[in-house]
Amino acid sequence: MNLYRLFRYRLIAVPVLSFILSCSIKPAASNYVDLVNPLIGTAPSTTISALQHGEDEKENNAQVVPYVTVPFGMTNWTPQTKATETKCVAPYYYTDTKISGFRGSHWLSGSCVQDYGSMTIMPITGKLKCQADDRASSFSHDTEKTTPYNYNVTLADYKIDVNMTATKRCGLFQFIFENSGEAHIIVNPNSDEGQGFIQINAEKNEIIGYNPVHKIYQGWGDKAGFSGYFVVQLSKSSGKFGVYQNEKILQGNTEIANLENIGAYISFDVEKGETIEAKIGTSFTSIEQARKNLAAETKDLDFEEAKENLKNIWENLLSKVQVEGTNKDDKVKFYTAMYHSYLQPRTFNDVDGTYVSFNGATKLMNSGKDDYFTDFSMWDIYRSSLPLFNMLTPKVNGQMMKSLFSMAEQGGWMPIFPCWNSYTSAMIGDHSVAAIADAYMKNNIEISDKEYSYLIQNAFKLPANHADYVNGKGRRGLTSYLKYGYIPLEDEVLESFHKGEQVSRTLEYAFDDFALSQIAAKRGDTLHARLLKKRALNYENVYSVADSTVRGRFADGTFTKDFDKFIRKPYITEGTPYQYTWYVPQDIKGLMNLMGGEDGFNANLDRFHAAKQYWHGNEPGHQIPFLYNYSGQAWKTQELVTQIMKTEYSNDVGGLSGNDDAGQMSAWYVFAALGFYPVSPSVPQYVISGPHFDKITLSLENGKTLVINAKGASSGNNYIQKIKFNGVEYDKTYLDHFSIMKGGILDFEMGNQPNKSWGTAKESKPFSLSN
């Protein structure tokens, strides 16, 4: 790169970066980004627990796609093998054999929601074929090259080589035509509702359009009040163009709207080896804002520079954690997991800060110098994804928490599971409070009196207007939860996408109450701290001592007679009563007491694993492998975590054990590889399981460095013999967050046999409410 291009590259690259990166861009030396394999998880899971516990292909697929994107990008770019925005259908599956386009996607990575506001571009040669199934081309995975910064494939039917890269809000494409002749570039909004708009301006070599957003996952299909807008600019002009609807081609027409299967095309005569480039700007605000985003991020930026920019953005992020060891496959798994962890939440604002207001898009707002984020898969990511951001990239995590408070200010209530920049009642719990508490207790954010009032409101009140409640404001089933201390089976929670699930809701509210009590105590609100701390023990109200598990309970206090702890029940979310029994992250000691102490707890947990009840493919059990640290058998945690990392993650396309859910499944692996895990977010501790690389260097955002040495860990020595922190022997089974953030040297002596006496002292065990 010559000096002029280097200077121009820096000027272009720096504004695109968010707070997740340092402002200096340096050429990558180690290329951690090239260890990422975006195809991992794009095929049905082949892991042990997925095959045993997943009920269908939706649960047994990671639902990730090979995104080319900036971390937390507004629009993510992927090859398209499924031409729909249907719930639980990802845009790309490895097992498909044809590509029908390249999508500017807002699919929540690893989820079972639906894509929204998306558009697709597709180059073809020969006869004009506009509909997705008709134009789709076969391709070979042998010619498919996937990285976070570039996707490359040959469309075999058309002999077109496609390259794709991205900025935060834009996509850039190269279409290289192997043969001369007639070629076409087709663009369409992906509206399954027969809506949308598209228009051609041949003089500007431009196609514009939009795709209205619907909240399909709710099950109601309500309009979200905004659209996905796009502006496509092509490098070659042509006087041959038209629009289409279904099989009807309207040659020479310049626009079409609000019909099913619509789109536009421009036709070209191409020479052998000719390249046509496309730049696509996107926005959730307007076509004009999409054009502004395109100009701000791609003006005078050629494809190779854009690709290099994006490569360095990912390299700077991934190199915050440098792992060393003998097993390259584990490095691929690790850096792919980091990549998946940093795909969502989604940047929602335009380059100038503009975004449409939360829950209805009735106003234009501005986020100023910060970004505003949406698409929080909150039931999943509060567990370890957001804690990972709190540790590695706390500034951007602070912006995410600020976004949640902005939603509350604009809509009147804290959101439960905010997607499509809207309230939803999609999942259970009230985990925005847990996410905020984790950031607050780690001193990453401050909370104003007004912001605190929204958290308290969610915990103690419901909307006066029932329509607001139906549409996702307030906790589901709160009235009965406050009355009984649990949600009885009579309360079916019909105003929710997930109906029933009363026991799981009770357990999760108890944890949320604990997290909020942490905030209240830190703020000096002793009244609410005391009330919420008491409510944090509500898990006891759905625990059956006779069964040593949680169980459905009626309003009169009796437990349901129909009971088998090994079978899924309607009062449990996506699992069995036995699996949900261990969801008491705030008070493992209290749960232990209910089971008769450490011996009873360990025996029950042993039986649970012996029965093969542990299901890594779903989030409510992600803390379970770490619980032996609380009960004097930390070596079993080390053994379990090692086993899960080996059997539930691989470098194959089926190498994730369930829905990745916006990176939660992957963030678990990142923490496990580091050797510690945030069992109870809002408690600034990480429960130790032992590193899985010989040396790990964390470059923290505050300028400090933490070096973790664990000689032999990458080659099978996965049992902790002893630990030293900055040269001083360390015998606790947890790490303090603030100690990590100060940096230093953490030395693990590892072995191939367990040290059963390590971490057994009472004072060595992690926090529990009942301690």
From TrEMBL:
Keywords: Calcium, Glycosidase, Hydrolase, Signal. The keyword Hydrolase applies. PROSITE patterns: PROKAR_LIPOPROTEIN. It is an enzyme of class 3 (hydrolase). This is GH92 family glycosyl hydrolase. GO terms for molecular function: hydrolase activity, acting on glycosyl bonds. Monomer. Its cofactor is Ca(2+). It comes from Flavobacterium magnesitis.
